[in-house]
């Protein structure tokens, strides 16, 4: 009876002070040695985040069971005290207590939160040793841990052998692929529904993000219909994700429709719509929306200013961008961080004001990162400033010596300047470090199916027809004045070879296929994982004019809308 009375008292506690009173009574009436009571005290201390009290109690306990250990591991994990979480778990193993499906998920989540892949593998070995690999909760947590540590293959192996999967596990796996393989993410979504699972709002946000990554318009429309059909409310989280999805699928109008339909909008929703205008080159619309946001009484935050500065940078609104940056702290108490400085360096660099960009970098008080130097290096590439490019590249290589993109970008600058001996030097460095250039890919949607092309690709079943169409189009463009810009072939080969290499760029092949397979009047939408080259940009402009076709290109930087021989970026990308 005393035990039950103590436990009932604990459930009435609203403050740590009250738990301490019960604790004192327990010591007085002699029920402290009752393990059930001691464990409950420990649990309530942890629930009230009184980890020091919990730890003191834990140390005083002469008897402990798996629940005792699990409560302490969970307490440290919840408070983000990762070192003590690990240390307590090691004590479990040393004491001979078998870890259970309560303590293991906590320590696995700690590995996830720290992205500690090696420790995660060690915990996985513990799971196997104690025969818990078939436990649903443990296995699901391991899948989540591997996914967050970007060990997608390990996550998938576990996922595939799970005897039972719940909606959370499906969502975790779909979300993991959304970050690295959006197409497979959507395949899993279809499988999940086929197996009878009805996705909730969290799952749909994950799927929406996958559609945004892939830029798959037919999937975006399907997802929108599914959300409407199943009566899922367009709250701030789901609505904001859908704004981003439609924007990244190249349909600003649909993004704005979702934005206008949302009953509740927060600063993130407004910032997402401003960002959408930004990477579609609609700088003026982004600025107008910002002023509308202010008139609605919503103050900007860091994300808003990143979106605004990006919009100004990609629309050539240099002076406006500088004014926004200057107003951040003085008018809105938003302290600029490295992302804002990066946007401003990009803004100044694109405008050719490299000296100002360098001065800004030299005087900035925040820590410089690789994105900042990448922005400066990109500006050097545009304006051919070799000396400054080398300075930026050296800083990049110090920060990320294993990133192949930095070596490629600098070697491209050398190639553009005709310094092929330097190009060879950097390629040798990449070979020695076993680094490989990221291959360029272009995707196109036709009849609800996504096709992928690489440079010189002949894997498509209609490859012969695609190449015939492409050569026919190029002849028409040449009659109209198109001259292949071989400056964008960064190899020391003959001029004719350079032309042939340009002709088979992945985006040209995708557009040729689009001309065959997509009916006239419908836009040709393509997505590219790298920045579109200058020659392909010119090609798209001329195709939109000569062939009277609207072309929408999403590259690594932004969207380009080609119509009647012009691009929405105003050749400022």
Automatic annotation (TrEMBL):
GO terms (molecular function) for this protein are: RNA binding; zinc ion binding
Q: Does the keyword Repeat apply?
A: yes
Record's PROSITE patterns?
A: PPR
One Pfam family matching this protein = Eplus_motif
Question: Which keywords describe this protein according to UniProt?
Answer: Repeat
Q: Where is the DYW domain?
A: 481-573
What's an example Gene Ontology biological process for this entry?
Answer: chloroplast RNA processing
Positions annotated as PPR repeat: 65-99, 166-199, 235-265, 266-300, 337-371
Q: Which NCBIfam families match?
A: PPR
> Of which family is this protein a member?
Belongs to the PPR family. PCMP-H subfamily.
Q: What is this protein called?
A: DYW domain-containing protein
């Amino acid at each position: 009876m005393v035990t039950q009375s103590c436990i009932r008292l604990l459930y009435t506690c609203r403050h740590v002070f009250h738990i301490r009173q019960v604790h004192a009574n327990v010591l007085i009436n002699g029920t402290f040695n009752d393990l059930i009571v001691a464990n409950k005290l420990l649990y309530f201390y942890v629930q009230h985040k009184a980890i020091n009290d919990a730890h003191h109690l834990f140390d005083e306990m002469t008897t402990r069971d798996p629940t005792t250990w699990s409560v302490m591991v969970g307490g440290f994990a919840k408070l983000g005290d990762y070192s003590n979480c690990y240390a307590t778990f090691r004590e479990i193993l040393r004491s001979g207590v078998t870890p259970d499906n309560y303590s293991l998920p906590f320590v696995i989540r700690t590995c996830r939160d720290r992205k500690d892949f090696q420790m995660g593998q060690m915990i996985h070995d513990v799971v196997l040793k104690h025969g818990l690999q078939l436990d649903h909760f443990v296995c699901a947590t391991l899948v989540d841990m591997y996914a967050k540590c970007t060990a997608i293959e390990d996550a998938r192996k576990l996922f595939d052998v799970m005897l039972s999967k719940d909606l959370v596990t499906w969502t975790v796996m779909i979300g993991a692929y959304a970050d690295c393989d959006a197409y497979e993410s959507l395949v899993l979504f279809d499988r999940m529904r086929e197996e009878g699972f009805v996705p909730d709002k969290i799952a749909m946000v994950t799927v929406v993000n996958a559609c945004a990554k892939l830029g798959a318009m037919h999937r975006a429309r399907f997802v929108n219909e599914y959300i409407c059909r199943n009566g899922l409310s367009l709250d701030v989280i789901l609505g904001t994700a859908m704004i981003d999805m439609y924007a990244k699928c190249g349909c600003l109008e649909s993004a704005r429709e979702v934005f206008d339909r949302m009953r509740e909008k927060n600063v993130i929703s407004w910032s997402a719509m401003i960002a959408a205008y930004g990477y579609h080159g609609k700088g003026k619309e982004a600025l107008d929306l910002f002023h509308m946001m202010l008139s609605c009484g919503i103050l900007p935050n860091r994300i808003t200013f990143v979106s605004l500065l990006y919009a100004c940078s990609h629309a050539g609104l240099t002076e406006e961008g500088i004014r926004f940056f200057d107003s951040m702290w003085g008018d809105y108490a938003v302290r600029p961080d490295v992302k804002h400085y990066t946007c401003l360096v990009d803004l100044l660099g694109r405008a050719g004001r490299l000296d100002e960009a360098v001065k800004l970098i030299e005087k900035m008080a925040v820590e410089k990162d690789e994105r900042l130097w990448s922005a400066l290096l990109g500006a050097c590439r545009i304006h051919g400033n070799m000396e400054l490019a080398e300075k930026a590249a050296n800083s990049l290589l110090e920060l990320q010596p294993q990133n192949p993109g930095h070596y490629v970008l600098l070697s491209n600058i050398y190639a553009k300047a005709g310094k092929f001996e330097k190009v060879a030097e950097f390629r040798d460095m990449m070979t020695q470090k076993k680094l490989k250039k990221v291959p360029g890919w272009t995707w196109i949607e036709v009849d609800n199916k996504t096709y992928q092309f690489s440079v010189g690709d002949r894997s498509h079943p209609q490859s012969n027809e695609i190449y015939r169409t492409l050569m026919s189009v190029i002849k028409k463009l040449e009659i109209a004045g198109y001259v292949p810009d071989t400056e964008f072939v960064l190899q020391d080969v003959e001029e004719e070879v350079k032309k042939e290499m340009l002709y088979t760029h992945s985006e040209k092949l995708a557009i040729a296929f689009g001309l065959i397979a997509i009916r006239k009047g419908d836009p040709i939408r393509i997505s590219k994982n790298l920045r579109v080259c200058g020659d392909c940009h010119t090609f798209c402009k001329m195709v939109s004019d000569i062939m009277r076709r609207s072309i929408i290109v999403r590259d690594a930087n932004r969207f380009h809308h080609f119509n009647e021989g012009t691009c929405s970026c105003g050749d400022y990308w």
